[in-house]
Amino acid sequence: MHYHFGGVDGLLHQAYERATLTMIGDYTADLTSVRSFEELYRVGATMAEKARTDGSAAMLSAIIAAAHTDEAMARMLHDNMARWNEAVSTAIDRILTLRKLSGAIDVEALTASLTASTIGMMTLGSVPGQPLGDPIAAVRGLPPLLDRAMKLVPAPLARRIFGALG
């Protein structure tokens, strides 16, 4: 093991990277077809359920905890989160473009906040006994509400609102 992976940490790093790349590959088609926040939510909810059942949410929790004290683990987490953000960012940009809101909202900031909150909900939702219930299911009504608001509010007005917030 030491020869091939440089020790247990090397094995863990390689396993996490492979798992991340596989998961991104598994959801790329879904992410590229997303046309609304409700559809993006469904992709995330499906991924969270799979991560809960296959143990990858628990593994991610351990990696996040280890990243606090292990620089190599923190770099690996950063690199893999950048891969996720790239995949999700493309979907968010498409949704905003379809609503004529491209450039009105900081896509990278929105992506980072959605990724972080989804990871938090996914990892907490995978804890035995679910101390907060199922956080992913709890926010199920927000994406369709956002989609409806984006349809009802004219794009020029939405751009002014988001511009005033920035």
TrEMBL record:
A Pfam short name: TetR_C_6
Classification via InterPro entries: BetI_C, Tet_transcr_reg_TetR-rel_C_sf
Domain BetI-type transcriptional repressor C-terminal: 45-126
Ranges in a coiled coil: none
Transmembrane segments annotated in the record for this chain: none
Top-level taxon of origin: Bacteria
Span of the signal peptide: none
The protein's name in its UniProt record: BetI-type transcriptional repressor C-terminal domain-containing protein
Organism name: Nocardioides daphniae
